[in-house]
Amino acid sequence: MDMVKTGAAESRPDPGGPASRGRGTGEILRQAVRSNVRQYGMLVALALIVVLFQIWTGGILLKPLNVTNLVQQNSYILILAIGMVIVIITGHIDLSVGSLAALVGAAAAVMTVKHSVPWPVALVVSLLVGAAIGAWQGFWIAYVGIPSFIVTLAGMLLFRGGTQILLQGQSIAPFPKGFQQISTGFLPEVGPNTDYHNLTLLIGLAVAALAVWQEVRDRRLAVRYGFDSLPTGWFLAKCAAITAGIAVFTLLLASYHGFPVVLLVLGALLIAYGYVMRTTVVGRHAYAVGGNQAAARLSGVKSRRVVFLVFVNMGVLAALGGLVYAARLNAGTPNAGINFELEAIAAAFIGGASASGGVGTVLGALIGGLVLGVLNNGMSLVGIGTDYQQVIKGLVLLAAVGFDVWNKRRVGS
Amino acid sequence: MAETGRPLLELRSISKSFPGVRALSEVSLSVREGEIHAVCGENGAGKSTLMKVVSGVHPHGSYQGEIRFQGSPCTFRDIRASEDLGIVIIHQELALIPYLSIAENIFLGNEHARGGIISWNETIAHARRLLDRVGLTENPHTRVADIGVGKQQLVEIAKALSKKVRLLILDEPTAALNDEDSRKLLDLILELKAQGIASIIISHKLGEISRVADSITILRDGRTIETLAMDGGEVTEERIIRGMVGRDLDHRFPERTPDIGETVFEVRDWTVHHPIDQERKVVDRVSLKVRRGEIVGIAGLMGAGRTELAMSVFGRSYGRGVSGQVFKDGREIRTRTVPEAVGHGIAYVTEDRKQYGLNLIDDISRNISLAALGKVSRRGRVDAREEALVAEGFRRSMNIKAPSVLETVGRLSGGNQQKVVLSKWIHADPDVLILDEPTRGIDVGAKYEIYTVINSLADAGKAVLLISSELPELLGMCDRIYTMSQGRLTGEVGRAEATQELLMRHMTMDRNE
Lengths: 413, 513
What we know:
The complex is a heterodimer of chains A (413) and B (513).
Chain A: H1 3-11, H2 25-35, H3 37-56, H4 64-89, H5 97-114, H6 119-144, H7 148-167, H8 177-184, H9 198-224, H10 232-254, H11 261-279, H12 281-291, H13 293-298, H14 303-329, H15 340-350, H16 362-381, H17 386-411
Chain B: E1 7-18, E2 21-32, E3 36-40, H1 47-54, E4 64-69, E5 72-74, H2 79-84, E6 87-90, H3 102-106, E7 113-114, E8 117-118, H4 120-134, H5 149-162, E9 167-171, H6 179-194, E10 198-202, H7 206-212, E11 215-220, E12 223-229, H8 237-245, E13 263-273, E14 281-291, E15 295-300, H9 306-313, E16 320-328, E17 331-333, H10 338-343, E18 346-349, H11 353-357, H12 364-369, E19 377-378, E20 381-382, H13 384-397, H14 414-427, E21 432-436, H15 444-459, E22 463-467, H16 471-477, E23 480-485, E24 488-494, H17 500-507
Parallel strand pairs in B: 3-10, 3-11, 6-9, 9-10, 15-22, 15-23, 18-21, 21-22
Antiparallel strand pairs in B: 1-2, 1-4, 4-5, 7-8, 11-12, 13-14, 13-16, 16-17, 19-20, 23-24
Helix pairs in contact in B: 4-5, 14-15
């Protein structure tokens, strides 16, 4: 007789089984907040920062033009942050992404400008270069066993030097028009002339519908399996808040040039990586390796391969970030991407990743990146110098992670 | 014995809650001067929490109730405050720094120093005196990493003595020790008692408790059940067990009628060398076989090479220079990596569940599914419904005590954590299960449940290899028992003729005999 089958047969839990019995609304709410305190906390912090600067800048922050700027300015850091949070989840770090982004931007410039390679070809080759370099670093880290801090510190020097050699100290410009569109373009307009960008509105509507549908589905599953779920009132409030957030953002974009191409890229990455990390075997293995590498290995997880793949992926995303940055700058320059790695790492940690691995989410990293982005933008708007900006960002990082540590100690036994 | 009447430590109505859990409610306990007081209870009964309250790990204000030491109330802010009064706790996981010397460890945080400059002569001289008192004849300069667990335990006690200890709290002091080292340790505690040092011992080993304790306090579900005085000699192990679980255990091992088939799993001439000291053979030409539906035990003292044998067979997870053959259903198989071993239907349930068995920061359901994610996923996508269903099934069938399968594993008690590890491997549905100390550090009630699971695995036709340091467990569970000593197989005993004396004789056999 098969133990597993007996287990599963007995298991079909009736709704409201023992798991949910005897837990009041208050307890469930508290539990929900406690287990997501980092992400809710960061969302609230982001909202507060937005409101603060909205008032401080006299309404400039949320002007349609500035919101579009915000998206385009921060897109490459956010792309890097997605790769970085996955690296951090597996218990590693990557210091080389800024240099790698610069190298790939430079390579793209050399290909398209000097050798007139068609830009789509150059784009694909650039991403492959990123993957190859990621594989190079992943090899040393996963299979040779050199700590990632050291391998990527070496990479930081290697690729920065490589960039300078490749460009011989000069900037190369300009990129073909099509290439620039990656970073600065907008989706085309469709339909009749309204005061808003129609396609943007449609996308916003679709995203809101998708988000609410996802929430409803999760809730239905939770109820069916007797897991704790928010009471109906709170659930509706949550859905309303999500919808309202998306609506406001959409209207702001739609009243300027519409939907930035790079936001489409970012959205696709968020959905794809969010899905991979949440529901695929590979994603699960990444969390397991970061949470307890020895236990993961003894459970049959090919932990080396997981780490290797995570670095290959980081290479690809760093390359993409580098391309977006180069397209925005409209040049390949030797000094591109300086400190990008630090911004990306900060974004991941502000977004709730744990320095010891096993914890973190893609969405969290994006929120963390946005916190930094809004801070940068808002402080620039009110005329705070970059010197004080750095001081403030440093304090924010420290406070966010400090809160994390404090909260863990409070909750944990 | 005039002094022993006065209470040294009194706990009055101690209550302590964690978010969502009431760990202690109204626990009272009184330790007299110079007595050895045992605290027993199932895992999760609140023993460790209580000791953390006493030693100031949980500071004053985080619990209700009163602590009195030598008659005066105490409000400890931290461990330091309780140590100043002479209360020293030695945790189950030893708190020594492996790369520092014995002497450095003894005086860590309490150095013989003037103006921040350490006086090494004083340090070494004092360390020698302390080591003498605990009966350890090691050089104080020796690195802690280079001595065995038993000796490390003695270093911990020497460290406690250096702090002018009045009350020593030992949490599962003999859990990692072999019989010989355990006996030495208990003798030392008795000797310290004669010197006027009282002890609180938390232990699952009832035999030890009966031997050394003057009184026993039993906790169950965070409450004091009773305190038994041992001097009458009427308190039996059965009596203690009854108090702990609240019911009689007429059979400490579940009944089973073995239905044994053909040989499923066989290891031939297995030799493993130490990963660092590559000259040393940790496992030396071991051959063994397990048949379908059979539970086969491996007995051995610390360092016999049992875990090393199991881990090296399971995907070369231990050691270097591994040689030998593994057969499954009569055909030789490769088990050079864990996925290979798992692919051939072999599972290894590790002895150290926290280090090697679980992802403590993840939830129950994800821990259970990890070894066989393929079974709950389609084309690389994990089916969360299926996964939750499987986990929920195990939560019920294994009686894992948790509010839901989304509970973080790190918050469960040891017995429940062990059930999660077992569930993980049962879910993988292997043909051969190697269970390494599956009931270590687990209370009696949970042990019985795990024995039942093991039996049902054998009844389901699995081949089970059971590594255990508890001889009664091997005698109660196994159809056949191999004994190992110093890396070699020294005996094979059938169920009928096996006795503790016989096994122990094989287990202590010198490798050259």
